[in-house]
What we know:
This protein is of the alpha+beta class. 30% of the residues lie in helices and 17% in strands. α1 packs across α2.
Amino acid sequence: xxxxxxxxxxxxxxxxxxxxxxxxxxxxxxxxxxxxxxxxxxxxxxxxxxxxxxxxxxxxxxxxxxxxxxxxxxxxxxxxxxxxxxxxxxxxxxxxxxxxxxxxxxxxxxxxxxxxxxxxxxxxxxxxxxxxxxxxxxxxxxxxxxxxx
Length: 149
């Protein structure tokens, strides 16, 4: 009896990824959403040393029944992507240690994993794709299917 599924995913051999902290996954020019749960928002507020009410007022907006981190109105960058926040001196995430699940699971999102072509397209934007350590299929799937609290 085989432990492998009948149709393993195209990435069954694993995928390489290493964050190079370039900030491109957090940057415009197109608009997007950084979905965050109430628990994630509370952790960010605590990390920033502000109250949750202030956090929602300054950094969060509601879209339907969900919450998203606001973006810079001009660049469409995530509001927490800041010059000098990267240890290398470039743009970096001010809340990296408490970033939302959506950010933690990049680039292992369903639309990036849909096909080799989708993965290659994501690589055009993200220089960390196809470099660094190899992630096994089970780790890729765990990140892809990460549930929110």
